[in-house]
Design a protein that fits this description.
The chain has about 450 residues and is of the alpha+beta class. The protein has 3 domains: about 270 residues, Hypothetical protein af1432 (Orthogonal Bundle), CATH 1.10.3210.10; about 80 residues, Growth Hormone, Chain: A (Up-down Bundle), CATH 1.20.1250; about 90 residues, Growth Hormone, Chain: A, CATH 1.20.1250. It contains 22 helices and 11 strands. Pfam families: HD (PF01966), HD_assoc_2 (PF19276). One of its GO terms (molecular function) is dGTPase activity.
Length: about 450
């Protein structure tokens, strides 16, 4: 049975705060949404620890995946209406690509774990590889539904996600510098964080998109809408995704899981009865797909609650700091002040905090726009504009605004430490000289050489 044979008699509509209506008109898509693997995404926050900074950011990867599907559906509709292929190889849109594009859009984040980026760092998982496994593993509901289209269809969908699919138009719909994924999460994250940074003219950007032989380009008359998108993305990273409090809570989460792993690996030294069963496959570095799919944000939070009663003071304290939102403080540093970090760690250790668990460095940088460089390990696709004569020109060649930020990293480097180190009055007077010395290295949220500023 083909994808087209499973059209719904009556379309299904999901109400959405970003797109208004998300329309599903095919049984395959509806069945994919109703699988346990996809429904699990309701229990995975889109922004992880950011909800501890922006209280509205409780939205899930479920809603984001529906949004990416909806934007891709609109792309397919516009391409089919305005740029349908006339003959093979003409670089226009072949609507036979619609099923794989829609399914890949819907399923692109299927492999994300709880607090995904922190979880990946600790347990060395890869959400894209796990997404591919969910799609291609015959034991999953997702695979069985995709296989109704054809035996090779799951592999085709997976190849879009890992960027090896034969048609670059479909790949760039889902993954490029202007793709459905980014266009949805910018608007969705902006809405739920209560900010305006990620807002741009989505309808105009979609209207200006055109399929070309090498992928997707934009009519040059839509250049300013694309510029607005680029700057919106930059602002979202600097103001939302790189927010120091969110990064601080990620540090605590990272160290909490690291401490739990350490205790599990040393039962005779700590707690022999420490058996967090659902995490043990990851502590043992030997997990299967079922182990992974059993995890969500709620499972981890339940363990964190248990750990607030741990006999281990560090695990107990880190769990309480995370659950009760007690972030670490941070100060900016640069190459000049970086040599001071060991000294600051030593002061923190002397004040009674284990510096392995109560300090961290975190570098967050992002390229607002990256021109294509084939020498890069992961070269970006260029944003191409179509001129009136049909020739292509790269965006930064005609946009002074984009050229001004192209290839220039934006972000900062931070040293994280316990807030207690900045308190003016401490209960234990013996530590007061330590706190005073530590504070002499912090000025205006920057690490400085105190001797140079006397």
């Amino acid at each position: 049975m083909s994808f087209q044979d499973e059209q719904l008699a009556k379309e299904k509509v999901f109400r959405d705060p970003i797109h208004g209506q998300i329309i599903v008109d095919n049984q395959i898509l509806l069945d994919l949404i109703n699988t346990p693997e996809f429904q699990r995404l309701r229990r995975i926050k889109q922004l992880g620890t950011s909800s501890l900074t922006f209280h509205g950011a409780e939205h899930s990867r479920f809603g984001h995946c529906l949004g990416v599907y909806e934007i891709t559906r609109r792309m397919c509709n516009r391409f089919q209406r305005n740029y349908p292929t006339k003959k093979s190889g003409d670089g226009l849109w072949d609507d036979r690509e619609r099923p794989v594009a829609l399914c890949a859009a819907l399923l692109h984040d299927l492999g994300h774990g709880p607090y995904s980026h922190t979880f990946e760092h600790i347990f060395h998982t890869n959400h894209e590889a796990i997404t591919r496994e969910i799609i291609t593993n015959p034991s999953t509901n997702v695979n069985q539904i995709l296989s109704r289209v054809s035996p090779t269809f799951p592999e085709e969908v997976a190849s879009v996600i890992d960027h090896t699919y034969r048609n670059p138009q479909v790949v760039q719909m889902i993954s490029s510098q202007v793709d459905a994924d980014r266009m949805d999460y910018l608007q969705r994250d902006s809405y739920y964080t209560g900010t305006n940074y990620g807002k741009f003219d989505l309808d105009r950007v979609l209207l200006m998109m055109r399929p070309i032989r090498s992928g997707i380009a934009f009519d040059i008359s839509g250049m300013h809408a694309v510029e607005d998108y680029i700057i919106s993305r930059l602002q979202m990273y600097l103001q939302i995704y790189f927010h120091p409090v969110s990064r601080s809570m990620e540090v605590i989460l990272d160290h909490l899981l690291k401490r739990a792993n350490y205790i599990y690996q040393h039962p005779s030294e700590f707690e022999p009865e420490f058996t967090p069963y659902m995490l043990m496959p990851f502590f043992n570095n030997h997990f299967n797909l079922d182990d992974y799919l059993a995890l969500d944000d709620g499972v981890l939070t339940t363990y964190f609650n248990h750990w607030t009663h741990s006999q281990d003071e560090i695990l107990n304290d880190l769990a309480r700091r995370f659950l009760n939102r007690r972030p670490l403080k941070s100060a900016l540093y640069d190459e000049k002040s970086k040599p001071l970090l060991p000294k600051l760690r030593k002061l923190i250790q002397t004040a009674g905090f284990n510096s392995d668990y109560y300090t961290a460095v975190n570098d967050s940088f992002k390229l607002p726009y990256d021109t294509y460089n084939p020498q890069n390990s992961n070269p970006q696709t260029q944003i191409e504009l179509i001129q009136p004569n049909g020739n292509l020109i790269e965006l930064s060649q005609v946009s002074t605004l984009v050229a001004s930020v192209s290839g220039k990293e934006a972000g900062d480097q931070r040293f994280f430490f316990p807030k207690e180190m900045l308190n003016e009055h401490q209960d234990i007077e013996i530590f007061e000289p330590i706190y005073e010395e530590f504070q002499s290295y912090i000025q205006n949220n920057h690490i400085i050489n105190s001797k140079e500023h006397k």
